[in-house]
Structure formats: structure tokens, C-alpha cells
Amino acid sequence: MKLDRPSSHLSLLFLVLLTPLCGSAENRPNILWICTDQQRFDTIRSMGNPHILTPNLDQLVASGVGFTHAYCQAVTCTPSRASFLTGMYPDAIRACMNGNDHWAEAAPLITKTLADAGYDCGLTGKLHLSSTAGRTEKRPDDGYRFFKFSHDPHDRKEGNDYTDWLRSQGTSRTRLLEEHGGALPPEFHQTTWCTDRALEFVQQKHDSPWLLSLNIFAPHSLGGRMYPPEGYTQRFDLESLPGPWFRDSDLSAQDHLAEVDFQTRPRKYGKQESQLYQAKYWAMIEHIDEQVGRLLAALEETGQRKNTIIIFTSDHGESLGDHGLRRKGCRFYEGLVRVPLIISWPTRYRKGLKSHALVELTDLVPTLLEATGLRVSPTLQGKSLASILEGRSDPHRHRNFVRCIYYRALTGKSYGSMIRTRHHKLVIYHGHELGELFNLRKDPHEHENLWENPAYAPLRFELMKTAFDAAAFATDLGPRRVGGH
Q1: Which of 144, 130, 252 is nearest to 198 (CA)?
Q2: Confidence band (pLDDT; 50, 70, 90) for 26?
């Protein structure tokens, strides 16, 4: 198999030149980067979900490129976010788990690179490059001037601008939930608050191009419970919802993986329970869609839309009952690793294209460097999507495989790697005699594990070698080489 071999000389990453290749600073695009939390790929109407209403995201697809096979590089927040903010794999930048004390600064964040190049950078919502457990997250040198932080909607005494805002309104999330039967009025939902702060930034007078990271916590659950805004779940006809991808045989398959970390234990969920959980999840996404609409309208009203790149994606997915699992952990099923990705720039990128190419979230950094006229370091492991976006290459071919890892992300004892080609997926659970191999063309919902099928032994060997090579090429080689010996 031909490998997408990345350079991995991390110290050279700091040599990315900040001189624009073409055009003045005034002509460089603004960037609105919307990243939801735990949103799986099959959650947008125009991208194949007939049960959900997402007119604003549909409009974004119509004005840009929707990628049907975009994959995160880790199935938990911190390593995924570190990866797509640097264009590097988590294991190449010492960012493999949630709960870390601080960001290791092993590679520059794209926001810092753009700030150094003259961009005005802002953030509203999550950052999550280090732990927030019992404390305020330690900020790295991230380049953000405007910083309205809310890791999650929990009531916190400090370190949560959303909590402070609720307090200024004479209320709290706990009080609102009590008053509204376990739901939040839409105007008090964290998703709305994040968007309000984003509008505040977008509508400011800017003397330079800007980048805004809008990092909404939804549709992530809290303690296993979904909290959609009041009235949104009722929009769905529960009986019509499809429920999860599940077979009874999935329970024995998951029991076989019992020693490998996951946030929930496998079980068979009842039909109504599954449909209600799905409706609450999709309800939060419909609310997100409405906030995207508010931002699109503001960009149009202020004359900024034509020269603004909009990225819509998520850090990882949600099991949603597939295979008897909810939430996330050390598994690599499509609902967990495959995420939405839409990129729109009306004056330069193709419109209404749905690309079926295999792409990674690492590909976003080099894409943005090209779009902003900055030089792209050859050490980046992402591959720019510019040729697809600009119509210069086959829109359905980009990578031979995509890669995702899980190293010590929950309890610190589980390690896993995934290689996904066009038609097959290999998963290795390191330290165990366990693995998974799926023929995605015949078994798209991943119910038939072919790991021990002798007919697939040659393919398993080939994909294991691919995974081994990919891990080697992601290694941090230390200081750059300056001599022959």
C-alpha cells in the first residue's frame, strides 16, 4: 500500500515563514472556525440525514464543499483539538490524552501563527488543550486577543464566563433547570451565549483580517444526559426516528473488549429510550444550526461574508447507542471517528460540492496557511485541501488512508490505533490480543469483525504494516539535523 508519508521533524515546524506569498494583508480572508463538541458525521440534512432540519448548515454546504468522509485523529477532546490546531498527529506533539496538566507547546497553534502574521484572533467557548478539572484551564501561547471562555455549561465559581453572565442575569444553570423541568430556555443555553459573544467579535471594527474560534460545548452530554434547549426535542416524531446501529451480537463483541476503556458499559437500549436520546441529541444540533444562521446573517449584513472562510466541524463523534454504547472511549466506530466538515469561501472555493475523499482534521492547518498566503512547513502532517476546494484536482481523492489514535485518554491504561482505507478499517488494541477488521463496503455499520477470519489474514497483515509505518513516521525526531555526523 502506498503511504501518505509525513515529515516528522518537529523542530522545523517553528520555521514556518510568516511572510505572505501573495496579496496584501487587507486582501487576506477572515476565518470563522466553528467546532462543536461530540457531533458525529450523520447529523446534517443535506449530507444525508432526512430526520433533522439544518437549513443553515445546508446553505453552508450549498455555498462551499461538504466532506462526507472527514475523520478526527483522536476520539477524545484534548488530543483531537491539539491535532487539528497544529496539523500534527497527537502522538507527534505529546498530546494524547484528556486531563493533562498543560499544553506541551510541542508545535505552534495555527491561531498563534496567524496572530503573529497580523490576524486578530478570538475565541468563544471551549479551548481544552489542558485539564479543567477543579480549576481554570491553563492558557498556552494561543494568540487569542478576544477570549470568552466556557469549557462547559456547569455552574462554576470562577473560570467560566458563561456562568458569570448567568449570574449577571440574576440566575444560574441549576436554577434554570429547576424552573423549567430539566430544560434550559434557548436564550440562556450555552450555545446561544457562545454565539452572542461570537457576534460581538464579528461586529467589531477590525483593522486587520480576523480568525474566530467558536467552540460550542453542545451536543456533548453532561454526566450521560443530554440537555437540549426547551421545546426543541418536541419537534421530533420519536416513532419515526431510526435509533442506533445495533445487533444483539454487538453485546458479545463488546464483552470481548471489556478490558478496553469506554465511558459506558454495553447494553441493549429499548426502542423508545433510544429514540428519545437520539431526538435530544439532534435537537441540540438543530439549535446549533439556528446559531449558524445568525452568524451567516451578521456576516452578510456587515459585508464580510464574501471574504470569510467558514469551517464547520467537530472534534469527535458520539456512539449514540451504536453497538450498545453511548458517549465515547477507546473504540473507532464510524459514529465516533467520522465528523462533519464543511468549508466555504464564496469568492474562491467551489460551491455545492460533496467530496467523498478521505480527509483528516490535520488537513485544516495547511489549508488555512495556503488560504492566508503563508508558507506551509514540509513537516506538517496534514495535507492541504486547497486543490479540492479550488477545483484543481479530483474531488474524491485525497488520502489513501486516515489515522486515529487513543493513548491513555480516560483511565490511562488503554491504547488503540485505527487505519481506515476506502473500503476497510483496522483497529489494534495495544497490549491485548484484540483487534477489529471491518469490510466497510459490505458491512458499513461494523457488525462483522473479520480480525480472526483466515481469508482476511493477508489484508490484516498489510494494514498492520501500514499502521506501524504511520506510527513511525509520526515520531518526534528531536532537534533538526545540521550535519552528517
Answers
A1: 144
A2: low
pLDDT reported for residue 254: 96
Burial readout 171-189 (b: 16 or more C-beta within 10 A, e: otherwise): eebeebeeeeeebbebebb
Helix, strand, coil share (%) of the chain residues, nearest 5: 35, 20, 50
Cα atoms in the Cβ-side hemisphere of radius 13 Å centred on 148: 23
The candidate with the shortest Cα–Cα distance to 265, out of 276, 274, 254, 275, is 254
Which one-letter DSSP state was computed for residue 400?
Answer: S
- Among residues 197, 73, 13, the alpha carbon closest in space to that of 123 is found at 197
Helix (H), strand (E) at residue 148:
strand 144-149
Q: How many CB atoms lie within 10 A of CB 234?
A: 11
Q: Provide the 3-class DSSP secondary structure of residue 414.
A: coil
DSSP 351: S
Q: Closest Cα partner for 385 from 358, 405, 403, 404?
A: 358
Element (H, E) at 222: none
List the grid coordinates of 439.
469490510
Q: What percent of the chain has pLDDT over 70?
A: 95
| pTM higher than the cut 0.85 | yes
What's the sign of the alpha-carbon dihedral 127, 277, 53, 165?
negative
Among the listed ranges 59-63, 168-172, 279-283, 408-412, which one has the minimum average pLDDT value? 408-412
The alpha helices in 208-327, defined as continuous H runs, are 249-256, 271-301
Count CA atoms within 13 Å of residue 103 on its CB side: 23
Residues in the chain: 485
Compute the distance between CA of residue 15 and CA of residue 275 in angstroms, rounded to an integer: 51
Are 238 and 279 in contact by the 8 Å Cβ rule? The answer is: yes
Q: How far is CA 289 from CA 26, 63, 195, 216, 417, in A?
A: 30, 15, 11, 12, 32
CB-based contact 65:353 (threshold 8 Å): yes
